Amino acid sequence: MTPYPISVNPNVSFTEAVDFMAERGFGNLIISDGTIPKGILTEREILRAVALSKDTSELKVGDIGFQPYVKITPGHTILDASKTMISKKSRLLVFDDDKLVGIITASDMLRAFRKTSLTPTLDEVASTNIIKCQWSDTILDAVKILHEKKVGSVIIDNMKGYGIFTERDLLVCVLANNVDLNGQVGGYSSSPLTVAELGIKGNEAASVMAAQNIKRLGLIKEGKLVGIVTARDIVDAYQSDQITNPWSEQIGG
Questions:
Q1: Considering the entire predicted model, what is its pTM?
Q2: Do 139 and 66 share a structural domain?
């Protein structure tokens, strides 16, 4: 659990929110104009705003929408939280009585999963549909592909060692630095892509991703990129393994 997440008013400007998130390394902001949160601003909403808007300079946070959330308590187990995250397809906010005390993200789950000896397979959750861009494609082209395909990353095809452009790269490398969206996406991607051999188990993948603070891991077979597994995919793998999963640690513990 990430304790006491930051809240902002819906009237805060899009630019202010982007700069705040980039400077502090946040992937989420709670949107609230009182004591009860309205929702959660994520990198996905920022991506959508850029893909659909010709000019974001006049936008307010409240204009671009936000993710719904599910309320849980510090007494929920990590397994219960992971099942809720996947089944509800929602972010999780932790409330102690009526007080917001934390947020649970897929990255938080990774840090917990790497402490367990459970080893779920990733075969059923990893994606083999690899979306690609060329180095010379514009940033805006890549953003529109991400939005249309409803994915959080694209592989930069003609880069040595593979490159990846993600929602986080858009936030931190592009928007926070006022980069022209007509620039070449390859120059603002992350390289080399962190990879592991196809067949890596869930706890091993969680350890690699948590240690490197990444949310996507490339899967290779005989030196070729054949899939991508995300932090949320790993959450899915753990909650799917519930029949044999004895894990009952509480999220507030």
A1: 0.89
A2: no
